[in-house]
Amino acid sequence: MSNNRKFSLQALAAAVCIAAVVGGLAGAAITRGCVQEAEVSESGAAAAQDGQEMSAAGSATGGQDAPNNQEAPVSPVTQEELQMLNRAGIENMDIWDSPVYVIGHRSPDSDTVCSAIAYARLLTELGYPAEARITAEVNRETAYILQDAGVEAPPVLEDAAGTSVFLVDHSEYAQAAEGMQDAHIVGILDHHGVGTVATGHQVVYEARPIGSTATIIWLDYMNYGVDIDPTTARLMLGAVLSDTDNLTGSTTTEADRRAVTVLADLAGVRDVGAYYYGLHAEKLSYEGMTGEEILFSDYKEYEASGVKFGIGLVNAIDEETAARLAGQMKEALAANIGAGGTDLLYASVGIRENGQKIDYIVPADERSRQMIEDAFPHYDEYDGTSFIFRTGLGRKTKFVPGLTDYLAAHPHE
Description:
By secondary structure, the chain is α/β, with parallel strands linked by helices. It has helices at residues 3-22, 28-37, 42-60, 79-88, 110-125, 140-149, 213-224, 230-243, 254-267, 272-284, 291-295, 319-336, 366-375, 395-409; strands at 100-103, 130-133, 164-168, 184-190, 204-207, 299-304, 307-315, 344-353, 356-363, 381-382, 387-389.
């Protein structure tokens, strides 16, 4: 075939191919005809087909090499590596001055005090100089736990301004030590709602919907690969039992239950029930205390929608005792409404009977009383002193969230 005729056939074949593609007629028969008329060799066609198959294979595998050239799969993270990674997660903790003071909320309870001690020890083991502090003298129950463990109460931090601080068991300025707004906060560990504390720098922040801050710290000891000594385990055990009402509280989780089992074993406590009875008996005892001392023995302040409110928790053994304590609290509340800028003030006197939580909510004044009627109209009884909730109105789970939501929906004028 002459070169001119061959060139003409090739041109014609190319034109047909172009027309087929443009017209959507790129069928197998036309394609074969185009290839034949273009006199593509069988070896060339085979090579082209091989190239297409390799390209398709490459696309299917994301452009990787053939299976025999693939990299080995990444191995799972080991427990040791996980602990190392958890430690790396706090290595950028922004500490200005040493030591870091680990401190809980005002009117310190057992969870806040024992958690401060346990977490300060954990930070120290991890190489961060830390010391536990408290905001005020400890209550009777906490004193019992500390004495049982052979541990002195931490010193009181009078003013947090200018210090490096790690907060445990709270994130509210209203509940924090004096001067906290001028402190350098490096971390927060809590099991409540997100509070008003804010920083302009990175912080270690860990919050879980769990029964006790001490349970979170127990998890952190394991996550960081640090052993818990028997004394610290005893403190943490008391904290968990106290804050979960011996694992009967509504916020109790499986983590809290497991923590009690493990911590009791580490602490050498063989009879957890007897241990709880001892600390609970101290918690119920207000012998020699004034009404004001009882009110503020477990007291917290909150702020929502421009309204500042305070709630003191009081424990009773039966309804007769609850009614008597409620009357005592009424006087203490009336004398302290407005102190510290509080707009609303309450005492919550709680008892447990047959596994049922009953709360007597005592308002300080008429405004506080009206707020309970408006925000919690489902109360069972009002006896002139207390609103009685026979299914409970837990401060952490119902009282504070419910009042916060109501205030948000009905802005303060």
